[in-house]
Every structure is written in structure tokens, then in C-alpha cells.
């Protein structure tokens, strides 16, 4: 099945590029075509995930490459949802670019795909824990990168309230899923290793990431939109923590002690 991924890459990249560019056209028909292209690319990636799931006879969630495909799918879906809610054309383009990035990274850095699934992963909590976390990371990652755009607009003296509204909504939804991810992980750990929490390096950085976005929510509750730059910076720092938790922890000296590191 994996040998078909080049076709998936070419088609999804072409459609996302088409959709991300035509959305700015003054012609209504072209704008409709851009949305159709964006959804087409997203559905192609989703279809490949389903086909890969059937081919591997397990959920394609074990390796880093497999999770990147899910990120592409969720980026496409989230971008379309934000466009429908806020009519922010740039979000459709932005999500298309992020989807392309993850697809191309997977194409250039594939993992070995096999049907093996270690005993610890053969749990009822495996699928909900990983999918919930991937969706949370996609939401928070998009919010965090949007915050950098907010900083740019703030420095230019441009309006930031619309950017702030998008970021706030993404973080609220993403944080809920992040919290459920932690809870599902604790239940899974109890089933697999007999303990809800062991301060494994991955667990520790997951908790630090959770606290990072909690700082944003606390700051927003106290200051609302009165201090947008501070909010954008906090979200940016939280994103760095998220990146460390996601794959940076694999390169830390303590990674060898972790049971959460990805392997090909």
C-alpha cells in the first residue's frame, strides 16, 4: 500500500496548491473551485489513511511518519472549518501549506511500515489516546503558528482582534482534547504498566505542554484582548514546548528511558 503514497502526495499537493491560491480570486466560481480542491486533497489523504489501516490490519498510528499523515488530514479539515466559521481566506491557504509540509515530510522521510504492534499498543486506549492527541496538536499547532502572524500584525500596527478570536477558539477546543489525551494516556498506562503516571520523559513534557497552554488561558481570562502581544508570545512559547513533547523529546538524553519514543 505504501508504494501508492507518491500518487497521494502528488495529487494532494497539487490540489492544496490550487485551492490555496484560487481562494483569493474575485470570480465566485473559482473560489468555489478552490474549496472543492482543498476538500479533494483532504479527502484523498483521508482515503489513504483508511486504505493503509486495512492494509496494515492495525491503526496507522504507531510511527512518526504515520502520525504525520493524520496531521495533514486534520490540518485540511481544521482550515476548512475555520474558513466556514470566520471567512478567513488566509486560513484556508495556511492550512493547505501545513498539510503539504506534513505530506512532503512523510514522502521524503518514510518509516518502515509493518503490521507488527507491540503488546503495550494492543489496548482499547491506543486509538482514542493517539487520535485525540493528534487532533489536539493540530489545533494547538495551527493556533500557535497563527500567533506568530498576530505578532507580525501587531508590530505593523494592524488590527489583531480577528486573529486573536481565531487563536482563542482553536486553543479552547485544542486544550479540551489535550486534556482528554492526558487522561486517556493515564488510563492506558495503568492498564499496560500498572501505574497512572510515572514521570516518563514523554509524560513529563506532555504535562509541561498542558501547563503552557493553561498559562495562556489564565492570561486571557485576566486580560482578555487588552494585551494581545503578551497572549501571542505565550502561545508561541507553548508551541515550542509542544514541539519538544511531540518529537524533540526523542533527542534528549533521557529518551532511552522512555517507553513513548517513536520507532520505524
TrEMBL record:
Signal peptide: none annotated. The keyword Transcription regulation does not apply. The chain crosses the membrane at residues 7-25, 32-53, 69-86, 91-110, 130-152, 173-189, 204-219, 231-249. One of its GO terms (cellular component) is plasma membrane. InterPro entries: Cyt_c_assembly, Cyt_c_biogenesis_CcsA/CcmC. It is a multi-pass membrane protein. It is found in: Membrane. Its main location: membrane. GO terms for biological process: cytochrome complex assembly. Residues 73-252 form the Cytochrome c assembly protein domain. The keyword Nucleotide-binding does not apply. This is Cytochrome C assembly protein. It comes from Capnocytophaga leadbetteri. The lineage of its organism: Bacteria, Pseudomonadati, Bacteroidota, Flavobacteriia, Flavobacteriales.
